[in-house]
User: Which sequence fits this backbone?
């Protein structure tokens, strides 16, 4: 896996502009902050982010993939304000669950999410190099 950063561009903080990877691909459907019983774990934005990431890591583990194989995360949020206001907390939760690995990421504000009470949904792509 190789991070792609065009010459002269500043390194982005907390993500990569591009990732080059070769191997088997795992596509993880959008994960919300549900626990294993399909209950939202919290109404708090940061706690929901953390649970989404935990769910992604659990799905990856089923495929034998560690978090370091993530190549892309797409975040859907119903309101970007809590994301912007709580970036240090989100970053801490991210590093706790994923570690110091920063795949290509996109954040999109959407009108709503399907499940009542969900504030964030994150989908993922990972590539296993074996």
Assistant:
């Amino acid at each position: 896996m190789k991070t792609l950063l065009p010459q002269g561009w500043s390194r982005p903080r907390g993500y990569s502009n591009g990732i080059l990877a070769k191997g088997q691909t795992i596509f993880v459907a959008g994960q919300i902050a549900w626990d294993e019983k399909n209950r939202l774990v919290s109404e708090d934005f940061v706690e929901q982010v953390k649970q989404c990431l935990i769910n992604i890591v659990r799905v990856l583990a089923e495929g034998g993939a560690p978090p370091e194989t993530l190549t892309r995360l797409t975040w859907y949020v119903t309101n970007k304000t809590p994301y912007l206001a709580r970036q240090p907390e989100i970053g801490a939760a991210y590093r706790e669950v994923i570690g110091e690995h920063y795949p290509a990421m996109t954040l999109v504000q959407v009108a709503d999410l399907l499940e009542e009470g969900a504030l964030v949904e994150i989908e993922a792509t990972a590539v296993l190099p074996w």
The radius of gyration is 15 Å. The chain has one domain: 2-128.
